[in-house]
Structure formats: C-alpha cells, structure tokens
Amino acid sequence: MKKKNVTDARAIAMYLSRIMTDESLQRIGLEFGGRDHSTVIYSHEKISNELKTNVKLQEEIKKVYTIVLFEKSNSVFK
C-alpha cells in the first residue's frame, strides 16, 4: 500500500506542477527523479480524469493549490 500512496502523491504533484508552472514536460519529469515526459502526461491525465468524479481528491488538490499560492505570494514580500 505504501508504494501506491507514494505513486498517487507523485502523480498529484506532477499534475499541480503542470497546471501551476510553465515548465516543460521534460523539466517536470527531471525534477521528479528523472521521470520521462510521458510519465508526466500520464499523471496529468490520470488525475484530471479522477477529478471528474472524486470529490475528496478535488478538495485535497484545492487545499494544496491554495497553500502553494499563499506561500508563493508571501515569498514575494520577503
């Protein structure tokens, strides 16, 4: 079960990286341990599809998204 949790967390992080940055697929994959760009595409599609029906995932991603935006905006003022 631990491997699935790590894999799911990585997929969510890749999804957020894709929607919150202008980085290339290759660069995002590189930052996640040298993953291939196709892994980033797969993760984005997987999470996008799951978000259509999974309310809990929607809420969790919204929380993380909000935290990241808050931290990013605060770092501008430091």
The amount of helix comes to over 70%
The rough form would be described as: globular
The end-to-end span amounts to 40 Å
Taking Cα atoms only, what radius of gyration do you get, to the nearest Å?
Answer: 13 Å
Q: Please give the largest β-sheet.
A: none
The average pLDDT score comes to: 91
Tally the helices: 4
H/E topology pattern: HHHH
Which class of secondary structure composition applies to the elements? mainly alpha
Question: Which regions contain 5 or more consecutive residues with pLDDT less than 50?
Answer: none
Find the count of extended strands (DSSP E, 2+ residues). Answer: 0
Beta fraction: under 5%
Briefly, what is this?
The protein is an all-alpha fold and 78 residues long. The chain has four helices and no strands.
Present the secondary structure layout.
Elements: H1 2-20, H2 25-31, H3 37-51, H4 55-76
Helix pairs in contact: 1-3, 2-3
Characterization of this structure:
It is a single chain. The protein is an all-alpha fold. It is built from 4 helices and no strands. Helix 1 (2-20) crosses helix 3 (37-51). The relative contact order is 0.13. The model has no long low-confidence stretch (mean pLDDT 91).
